[in-house]
## 1
Amino acid sequence: MDPKTLRFTGEHEWIEAGKTGAKVGLSDYAQEELSDIVYVEFPPIGKKVAKGETLVILESVKATSEVYAPVNGEVTNVNNDLEQNPQKINDDPYGEGWLVEMEISDPAQLSELMDDHAYQDYLKQEELN
Amino acid sequence: MKLIFEKSVKGRDGYSLPADLFEDVSIADCIPDYALGAKKTLSEVSEVDVVRHFTKLSKLNYGIDDGLYPLGSCTMKYNPKINEKLSVLDNFVNAHPFSPEDTVQGCLKIMYELDKLLCEITGMDRYSLVPAAGAHGELAGVFIIRKYFTDRGEGRHKMLVPDSAHGTNPASCAMAGFKSVELKSNEKGTVNKEELKRLMDEDTAGLMLTNPNTVGLFDDEIQAIEQIVHQKGGLLYYDGANLNASFGILRPGDTGFDITHINLHKTFSTPHGGGGPGAGPVGVKKFLASYLPSPLVTFDGKKYRLTGDGEKNIGRLRAFWCNFPVMLKAYAWILSLGEKGLRNVSETSIINANYVFAKLKNYYRPAYDRFCAHECVITARDYKQYGIKTLDVAKRLMDYGFYPPTIYFPHFKPHAKETMMIEPCESESKETIDQFITAMIKISHEAKTNPELLKNAPHKTPIRRTDEVLAARRPVLHYDDELKLK
């Protein structure tokens, strides 16, 4: 997946919105910051989440951190493969390391997110702070 | 170093059993299956092999008796040995929890007076000494909050927990049936008042707070925070994790906290870590006293008694008198220091941390550039360009003979990246702290001139850098597992 087609949150989630649903994952910057991920805890399928609510819990050798829902919606699928192979989030954050598929309930929220260009600028600011 | 299992030689025993005198009893039949099954992994070694193996292991250990242990957030301070000796005096050790009250009046008196001393130190009205550790004390406190609101017919089901809080805070909330709601910190690293106002509603039972907080920063807006919580009918819970930076100076009870817990281990002269035993007394203001867990000690002017006391008490959390030796050490320590001594402990721990911070902040960019309490947070962010992470700095510190500080905590926004949290404690001399500072400055130079030295550190420890990822993903916890891997 090409990051240029994705939208990003300030909390470093990415979302790829299709016609029916969307895929959510963690940005390359975030996986690098977290370092090696060793455990993934998914939400139950069918769970309704609001933007900013905890979607997935990740555990790396550094710390436990939460992945937040980038938009409102309902969880339709999770990447079960990661339970056995969490390192795929580190190896391929925009591809095999995707986390959750969800049905978006409020597509207008997508426009509030950053595109790749804006996200890269945002990261530069983060580094300076 | 070989494992004890690898030293095993078939048939080599460290024991000899007497001859079997009972022909009509089969020993094998007397041993349950689970015990027979376990035998195959017991190593066969002689007594002297065992003694040497574990003596060698003990020499590889590193603890506060070996040197500085600046593990931020943990208060790994030196505790006077005399209190350990005192806690194993015959009269204490031989007291039995079923002893008639008349024969253990001294022990009960100590528990009674410790309650009073803790009240005096923290500004609360009564303590229960029951909880066995910090998180247990928190759980007791949160149970009290739940029962209090249930009795009032209020269905408050949420609890606010700052993003800087210890993980035990949300865990205690969850165990008591509350939904824990994260309260984000502000730019200064303390409670964001606007967020607090927004989140503190009629469904919220209160706020769990540590002050100085878990980032080692004193929240000087505590009075405003107290008002916001109380105005909405909530309760304010004080996590005693950082009492080492405030006792003798400020009492949580005076700043509006309704419930506290204290870590007697860690703060009051029982070593922290190693799995206990600890003690986490829970204290409350008068209006909550009847909720305290039993047993409590009462005194009628003549006799000390163990009672269930409060009619609303949340019940028993632990058997017998709980961890009495820990209470003893705390009692002795408090009385030996007195009011001024306790204040001196807080002040010295704060001065030591600020000294480290002032000396190192030009070498390691601070997470929060302001005065800290008893621990400071610096980062290795500026060494990223050399490929150096905080982990590398910590590992290199071991080559200089120091236990590394806490790393990658705190890790929440906005400034806390590649963090190191350093808590020197009050018990260290200026000379020791200076040695630590010198090592840290040397490492900052090495990071620029010879980064490989850090990336491959430690070089001088019995075991070099461990594979933390493999250890987390495929832990080998049992010798049989290791054999299977081979």
## 2
Amino acid sequence: MIKLDSKIPEGPLAEKWTNYRASQKLVNPANKKKQDIILVGTGLAGSAAASSLGELGYNVKVFCFQDTPRRAHSVAAQGGINAAKNYKNDGDSVYRLFYDMIKGGDYRSREANVYRAAEVSNATIDQLTAQGVPFAREYGGTLDNRSFGGVQVSRTFYAKGQTGQQCLLGAYSGLLRQIGKGTVTMYSRREMLELVVIDGKARGIITRNLVTGELEKHSGHAVILATGGYGTIYYLSTLAVNSNGSAAWAAYKKGAFFGNPSFVQIHPSSIPVLNEYQSKLTLMSESLRNDGRVWVPKKKGDKRPANDIPEEERDYYLERRYPAYGNLVPRDVGSRAAKERCDAGYGVGDTGLSVNLDFKDAIAKQGKKAIEDKYGNLFEMYEKITGINPYEEPMRIYPSGHYTMGGLWVDYELMTTIPGLFAIGESNFSDHGANRLGASSLMQCAGDGYFVIPNTIGNFMSGEIRTSKISTDAPEFEKAEKDVTEKIKKLFAVNGKQTVTSFHKRLGKIMWDNSGMSRNEEGLKKALKLIDELKEEFWKDVKVPGTNDEINQELEKAGRVADYFGLAKLIVTDGLNRGESCGAHFREESQTETGEAKRDDANYSYVSVWEYKGDEQEPKLRKEDLNYEFVEVKERDYK
Amino acid sequence: MNKMLRYSSLTKKYVMALAGFFLMIFLLIHLGINLFIIPFTENHQDIFRDGVHFMTTNPLIKAMEIFLFGGFLIHILIGIILQIRNWMARPIRYAKANNSQGSFFSKYMIYTGAVILIFLIIHLGNFYFVKLGLTEAPEGMTRVADDHDFYSMAINLFSNKIYSGIYIVLFILLGFHLNHAFQSAFQSLGLSHSKYTPFIKAVGDFYSIVVPLGFILIPLYFIIYY
Amino acid sequence: MNIKLKIWRQKNAKAKGKFVNYSLDNVSPEMSFLEMLDALNNKLIIEGDEPVAFEHDCREGICGCCSLYINGTPHGPGEKTTTCELHMRSFKDGQTIVVEPWRSKAFPVMKDLIVDRNAFDKIIAAGGFISIDAGSSQDSNAVLVRKEKADEAFISASCIGCGACVAACKNASAMLFVSAKVSQFALLPQGKVEAVERVQAMVAKMDELGFGNCTNTYACEAVCPKGISVTNIARMNREFLYAKIS
């Protein structure tokens, strides 16, 4: 039986990472050249890891399903990236960043990992800056900062509303440099469909060449997943439409445990659903809440245009409910507050499912130019999609599925429960607890890629210096390939009448209605049943056109949706198990009289870790107890 | 030739631009002399002939002539090489022609250039080759001393209305060519600046209108007064 | 509204393609162009036909996947817009829309409207980076950068690598793409160290891959969804000239 060992190093919090690095095993440069590492996913975490591991001298094979690594969805992160530089002299420190993250995560994350994430954040900013990422600057030439939700300091570095793009392109350029040098080999337009485990260790993957349909076997001494989150399980989300959870799901089925799958962040500000054809919800960065004020009319069902509603008839409900943090409350709080107002009948827009985000006061105070400088591209984007000019009228926003705090369970070294299989960035569960604070996702991804995994992978790789090249002729590879072939055949064989997308939409609706912003036992139980029914219908009536040996986007989608049925059930099962409200996970049964989330530390202060037991079997729950040694666990209060 | 093909695309562009600049200066001098065909001063004929005399006998100018021909040759040759490469870069054309905005005249540089080249050959046949003695001077021309009587030749040619008409159309096309060429040469050489580029563009517009117009004035004068 | 579509269909890279006409009813003006194509594909799948293959991912104008040449313009009508940000309200009821893939020797068609833009990666790999290994950087504020330069570098850096510039250029030139990257690094002190090598390597790679030359037509600038200016091209010309003569 696999034991859950989080391998947290000894010593005081601030010395753990130093102690770890001082004592972990290393691989000498000559041996690194003989070791192959497979890395799946080229977002910020993947690209940063690939280039860093390439720099160290490992042979790295990198895979992405897009045509080029630069398209990964890190590109869409808008607002910024945190670091504890304290350039603003406003009382920031590594500890403060760590503490904000622990608190923001509602005391459901692992102290040591979070502290390390905060610790490497400064080096990450330096690395990105050195790579030519054009962060915003002050007139004096130094880097500028802004503030983000859930914190009281300004520690967010940004490049207009395109910080993710700029960070990713920085990491991408580093990756391409290594590709040019030959230390990293790039395999684009490849989708990982199976993990190969030999003698208990992750030794390779099966990929489908998305151009020829050919299944390819790739071997390595270790496999790193940097495959992002599974937010598209809601169908409509802020994610790229091709983002998916299949790689993590494959790993889970091969024995990697899944941590906190139900912790899904619903971002408070995205452009609301406008019509039934909608394929995507566009994020409007949290940074907008630095200057934008959120409000709804005080009168129920007030259908007047926003600008016609006088000041005294507006309810700035965030400022009213949370005077200390105001519009900058954390995302889970902001989302729920918006839902509460809309459910109560105060929502605006045709559907009544949106709230106003108003820049009138900011424009009056700072001038249009200043606002344009900060958010110009976001305003443009909003106008393009909605046809409404946000300089004149308030934006209309509504929460939508955004980020998954849950993911593959990893230890301090970011290794999953399968030796040799690592998970970095959003694909792991480790740093954000039950709720992620804004601008900490880029921070974690870049930190994991540049500074954590290059240091921690050595410990495993040092045990592999005597392992020769892994042969792809091993029976495990054959078996894995055969399994994938069969799954593909099965998908074509259904030959039903409904499109893959129609199933995805229905799955998304089940998840949004029952396992979204607010959850209850009845709904969750209903969801389990609905998912099973939908899954059965899928395998009886889905239509996958075309053939396997060509570019077949429907086949790609079908495989991803097929995997989502399982993952959806896991999310719901986890949500059902966690009877408390914490962070983004809001159980209606567990709330205060004023409707705030009520955490239950006595019964749920653990990471729920799920083990796959078979498609038809219930997964097995294990608990990683969260013992807070260094922070006092308190009620999370933004009032 | 082979070596020229191997130069980077940017180097070819620099040469193209520099040769173009040189040709534009030449054009200006050429215009300066030509204008004296029109009798706006009493001794315009003498000035014209002096000018021609100077241009055809001065050793420095003679040396420059080599550069000038080199300039033409390089400009034309590289222009063709670049164009062929550009056509090759899109082996399958669009069904729907590109309607993207951009510099209008730049799309026709190779065509305006080709027409100018044809004229250039005729022009050389009419004047320069006569000077070299490669072709016979047309009948009925007087010779003044040893100088080739370009003045009479010009009058002779411009009295032909069809020639004048072609000449006018051609210089309009040259104007199109120059309109893009002027600012394009600056851009190719990297001489771009948010403050000064609008000024350069304005000068380019001015040059591309005034210079061809100057040339056109001469046949116009003949059409009107003869 | 009803939309008539004339779409390029091509089985694979080797197959000969052709235009196929489609008619689509119930198009809502609120749909994005890609959502309209989703609706078409939905119809095709249900009718037993093969859906149209096109690239898309983020659907919010930042990933650079979408690459459709719509009625003679890359990314269709509208300034600074990617195809995914284009909405059907930009078209008229009953209008015929011709959809083609990017056309360029360096971007071969793979299927239907999907082209291979790997050439861009090759250019970046040739020199579009700052050589700095993780761990060797100094404090970010140790080097001051004038705000104006940083902002300018940001605009150059905001290129999404979609290839609309190549698609629009009558010469299928990649100058805007290459120059944006050269500019970004040329504007920042961090990038100056390798400037001479970078511009030469990137231009050489660009030439090698079969892109055309720049004839300063500026169609690239007009279609760039991120509004990247041709002043970047001038800057690259300057950088390259300096590199050659220094």
